[in-house]
Description:
Helix content: 40-55%
Strand content: 15-25%
Mean pLDDT: 93
CATH class: Alpha Beta
Order of helices and strands: HHHEHEHEEHEHHHEE
Number of strands: 7
Largest sheet: 7 strands, mixed
Number of helices: 9
Structural class: alpha/beta
Low-confidence stretches: none
CATH topology: Rossmann fold
Amino acid sequence: xxxxxxxxxxxxxxxxPQRLDRAEILDEQVGVSPDQLARSLAAMTTVNHWLGGxxxxxxxxxxxxxxxxxxxxxxxxxxxxxxxxxRTLQERLAREGVELSWVGVDRSxxxxxxxxxxSGRATDLVQAxxxxxxxxxESFDVVTSSLTLHHLSGAQAEALLAEAARVARRAVxxxxxxxxxxxxxxxxILGLTLWRQDPITRxxxxxxxxxxxxxxxxLARARTAPFRQVSVHxxxxxxxxxxxxxx
Length: 247
């Protein structure tokens, strides 16, 4: 069984539409095999590593750790995927003398099976919807996510941010793409080169850009959440990092 053929993508040299309301193949996972799913999640790991995903998250966590003089940090990652992001954060902070413990949440059971296989852990992986997190208030120091917000409608993004603010003792730090014509063109070029043998990522990558928020849109959504202070930072190339302080 193969995924159904998706609708055509907008031409990269046309004016981009407003935020696109279109599901990605991995949102539904219809006809997606475990190998295809693992390959697509691995592609996102590559994007996070080389195109400004994990690095900016780490930088904002470092600032939080230093401002509070922390040596331990508990973290909840929403939309954990293959768990590469929290594992990388854990490894990098350990080199700096900070012990990071983390729990990963994803609503997809097949995704969590891949996370379990790649991380070698199961007890700290929870199947749950980020809009209704199954944790008490202030359960974690920090709530993070990477490439999760663009999968949500505006109202759903607001609900996720409110839930994350409820669960976080200190801060919410979330990274995602910025909707921009050059970012979309780059995703289409990756589809013709790096992702040419991966039809799911070849389609989902550009759609992810079209579904993403602009900086002003994301900041407007974040201001509905009960943060003490909130900001959205631009990082090259075309990454947004939302930082909402709750302490």
